[in-house]
Recover the amino acids of this structure.
């Protein structure tokens, strides 16, 4: 299968990846997956110690080290320009550059427009959209300096589900897709692939459960490792490969073309 090579192979040896939102959930699985494929990984998020939800950047780094991989914990709040710049600088100081970004940090709010407090709306835009803008803008010069690389933003199939209503979360992710599709054109000449990646089905992460996600039938769920495998595949691209696309994890991997 196409994806098996991407997962088992060491396709990313010599590459440096920055994963924003990597303390738990999909981001943690992606960080572990990229390290398993040979990349040195900057594990970036805010949680340095256990908070309301399980998962810390240090715990994920320990997991990667225990498996023989290379990783660095970088405290990072994607809504703060200063914090993002410091996290990227720490990564470059440790690993010598950046080839891959996975902009995964996100917050969920699925309330209808009428009952959405301004603070919720703003938080979705700040983390999900401005956060992607800030981390992307900060890594681009470093990826350019490598002569090419890959940027991946994690979005959602909800962007297309207009029949299910509107909410701040889907709006913020729709804007990210427009940002990244345009950025693919801007960065083609720099040999940088730019793509969005969504889970094909729900990933039952800590954040998803905490935000009220109830029980789901098994057929509605995919494991976080599927997103990790898809991210590894996209991380290995440059502008000569897959770029300017919105991908679904299982479809990209050829696992579930009918969904
Ligand atoms: P999660 O379990 O809540 O994890 C979210 C991650 O984002 C955490 O590592 C969190 O770390 C980080 N984060 C949140 N705010 C941040 C900030 N201001 N600065 C830096 N990092 C921040 O969520 P998930 O389910 O894994 O979702 C990950 C991504 O996939 C999100 O973008 C989400 O929209 C997307 N997605 C998920 C699903 C799904 O089925 N789960 C479906 C479609 C799309 P700290 O709290 O430590 O900062």
């Amino acid at each position: 299968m196409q994806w098996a090579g991407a997962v088992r192979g060491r396709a990313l040896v010599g590459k440096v990846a920055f994963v924003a939102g990597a303390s738990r959930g999909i981001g943690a699985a992606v960080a572990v997956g990229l390290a398993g494929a040979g990349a040195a990984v900057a594990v970036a998020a805010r949680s340095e110690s256990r908070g309301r939800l399980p998962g810390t950047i240090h715990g994920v780094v320990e997991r990667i080290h225990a498996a023989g991989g290379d990783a660095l914990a970088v405290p990072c709040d994607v809504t703060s320009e200063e914090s993002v710049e410091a996290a990227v600088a720490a990564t470059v100081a440790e690993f010598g550059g950046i080839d891959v970004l996975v902009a995964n940090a996100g917050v969920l709010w699925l309330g209808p427009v009428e009952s959405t407090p301004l603070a919720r709306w703003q938080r979705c835009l700040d983390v999900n959209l401005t956060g992607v803008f800030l981390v992307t803008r900060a890594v681009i010069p470093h990826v350019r300096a490598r002569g090419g690389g890959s940027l991946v933003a994690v979005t959602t199939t909800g962007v297309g589900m207009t029949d299910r209503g509107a909410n701040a979360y889907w709006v913020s992710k729709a804007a990210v897709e427009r940002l990244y599709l345009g950025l693919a054109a801007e960065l083609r000449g720099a040999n940088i692939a730019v793509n969005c990646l969504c889970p094909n089905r729900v990933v039952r992460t800590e954040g998803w459960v905490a935000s009220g996600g109830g029980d789901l039938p098994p057929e509605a769920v995919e494991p976080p490792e599927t997103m990790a495998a898809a991210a590894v595949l996209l991380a290995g691209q440059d502008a000569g490969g897959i770029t300017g696309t919105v991908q679904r994890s299982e479809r990209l991997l050829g696992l579930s073309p009918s969904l």
Notes: The chain has one domain: 2-252. The first helix runs from residue 2 to 8. Residues 20-27, 45-47, 76-79, 104-107, 127, 131, 154, 156, 198-199, 202-203, 205-208 surround NAP (CB under 6 Å).
